Amino acid sequence: MIAYFRRDFISYFKTPIGYIVLGIVALIGGFYLANGIGYGYVNIIEEIYFIQNTLFLVIPLITMRLLSEEKKNGTDVLMHVSPISLNRVVIAKYFSALALFSIICCIIVFHAVVAYSIGATITADTFGFFVSFFFIGSVYLSIGILASALTENQIISAISCLTVIFFSQFIPVLAGQIKSFTFSFMSSFNIFGLSSANTYKIASRLEKIILWFDPYSKFDSYYAGIVTLSPIIFSISIIFVFLFITYRVIEKRRWSQK
Amino acid sequence: MNIRKKIAKMYTDHLIRLSSRDERTRAIKRYSIISVLVVITFLIIFNVLFSIITDDRIRVDLSPNQMAKLTPYSKELISSLDQDVRIIGLFDKPNDLSQSIHQFFVPLLEDYEKNSGGKITVEYIDPSLRPGIYLEIDPSGNETFLPGTYVIVVGASYRIINPDDCIVMRNSYLPLYNNVEPMFTGTIVQMAQSKELRKIYFLSGHREASHTMLDTVLSFSGFATEELDLYLKESVPEDCQLIFVNAPLEDISAKEAQILIDYLRGGGKIIFSFDYSTSSAKFDNINLLMAEMNVKFTNSIVAEYNSNYLFNVSERFIFKSSIVREFTDIKSDNLVVGYSRGLEILDSLDTSSTVTAVITSSPNSRLIEGEVQSEEGARNIALYITKPTSNGEAKLFVMGTAYFTSDNYLSEAGINDINSLFIKKVTQFMYGEEQTDLVGSKPFPNYQLNPMPTIREQSYWSVMLMSIIPLAFLLSGMIVYLKRKNK
Prior knowledge:
heterodimer; A: 258 residues; mainly alpha; 14 helices; 81% helix; flat; B: 487 residues; alpha+beta; Glutaredoxin; 4 domains; nine-stranded mixed sheet; 36% helix; elongated
């Protein structure tokens, strides 16, 4: 497992991918910080938020080749016959991507240190923001690794990962639309003969159920400085689900002889 | 024939092989789907149970100055409500709190709900989806509600709270103070508190300045205010601990003056502020009251001639002043004084009273009355007078300016202005209680760089952060790419 982790992690730096990813993040974050220094106003939380909004571009770059390249080169057979189980291979690959993502986090920490050294205020809620950034990035990585397992084409893998991440950011909008639609529909046709207030409650509940699956909404309290355990548990669960699906996809491919 | 048989056999074998493989593939697929569904179901149940069991009890407040958490005083107050309180946000609860002003409200309101023992409920209702909510709050339909605001409903009464009023901004973009908790606790307590609040009476009937902002400031310290019209009364109410006379434009009657003098003689406490806009008016009865405590206010106005104390050199009547006697822990020489009447200490035979100058102007200021100017010298802006009586100590706090109490000033400067903090502390002092902020404002962290980097430092960090570090990564990537290409 460690061998797989080491091989995949080092391969990020034997190809330009790792450097490009780090360069892009350093440029985006650096631009934001340098701009703040110019104005005499630096809030690292805003930089983290800014970088978080670009994750849908960065994460596909990290994950696109993890499994698709194995399939393309035919080296996935080695995985199938490897003495370690496939789920460990998937976990090793995920952690190699996570290690690169951790270096991205280190760039943010470096920026925070720079900001602090020149007299900026770093508040405790920055830590909450940072934790939410890390876990949201980790969830996206698990989505990326699944996308990579589904195809042997890196471009298709990257695009599908990007699409899923991009649209996942619209879950709150979708939930709001569904709420409006449900309320209008039930009010117009007077379904179940409910009062306006009760219809609104049902529509709101439906919205809440959809929002329950949104990692961004889960971390809402973090943005206000309240750190709780449930969003972290939720993120780990989502990561587990996607890694499990990835494992099942590879396992199915192994035994279906396709 | 043989060939045909052979082909038929090959085809049959192929079909058998295919069917067996399809069956296996289908079985694996079925197993995969079921196992994934089981895992998802298990994790959903686990997460729901975890949320229910922990109910976010494991919760750390990292917000600056614990903005997302109620102070113990608020908790104590809302735990003893005897009426149900409904807080309605007239908007859809924002899904991305980080980009919304409601990030300062939503977590705090959750805390209100949790700590009220079921007395407070918080709802977010989008009026565009449920327009009936307006009539539900105000059956008369007279009120104009703005979407995006909060409404606190207690029984048939309600109060609207505009989120913008709770955040004090500098230059309309830099948040300075968070007043969400003082505003909500103050309002809820005023509307639904069962226990008796500490009451301050405001004298009325003499065109006094309005004191809505001052009420808000005082409500943060748990004070309720009530109007006091002495015209038809023979004495002040029994429960009166402190009377505020807020910049009257008309003199009080002789009878009222006598009631107030009697009140002082009985160990009463009065805070008095003056307004200069009626300089020509006669205030004989008020001066009668003042004389009781050995002071007098005049028709002169204080003009500052030291440019270090002026905000604008062409405006000598608005200036900075300092607290001479430490009433409070406020260590500031930036109190804003404007259009202050001169206050004189009388050379009375009555030596029992002690007069202390609390705020004075600079030694270069003068008193001006019409065309007449006094000599340069420090002028009294606020005086504190005590006098022993048979029923305790009479206390009078007099300010020559309305800049500490009137809505005109406070609504412009904000409730976290140094003047409003000062008057709050003075009120607490006069009331005779510990000088603690019960539900105070919470200052936002200041993200401005201190000290401001020099141009050289700015250039250095711009080059370093935007060019050298990113380019180092990208160039390394290019070198790796070229090496691989040449292999």
